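Entry 14. Ran structure prediction on the chain below.
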Amino acid sequence: MKGIAVIGWGSLKWDQGCLRLADGKWYEDGPQLPVEFARVSDNGKGRLTLVITDSAPPQKTLWAFSAEDTIEGARENLRKREKTPNINDIGYWPTGSAPESEIERTIAKWCVVSRPERVIWTALPPKDKDGKERVMTADEAITYLRSLPDSVKEKAREYIEKAPKQIDTPIRRRIENEFGWYPK
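Output, structure tokens:
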């Protein structure tokens, strides 16, 4: 398969925004990456979002083809969709190059089967409620969600329920047990 694969695991699936996809189709057989509900994000909207973190168990991600023809264009398009000022928050791996990280090694193995020419993904770090780059514990995540005002909690619930069903993380299971927020 030729093209640039966009790997996703959260809101990209249901809220593409300005993300340009070749055919709009998300495939559910992406690489197994360590993602968890580990980032308080959205410029104060309070959602607890999924990001890659080394401490999480691998999850089967999703992927789609970018409508962009160049890696630079695809990364810039995803950067705009993610509303991050830093292009380095968008990871990429050109097939044929030596993988430098465990994430890249996992993606490289996946590329052998799926055969995209290049791959991009969101590489935002975990972030706690105070803006520190760290992964909250499950207890901290539950405490954080309980502390939210109802209007903000509704946005957090929506994100968690809309996250793809195949993303079955320890924090998600804990949220399901505590709040009854199940995938829709």
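Residues 4-179 form one domain. Will compare against last week's run tomorrow.
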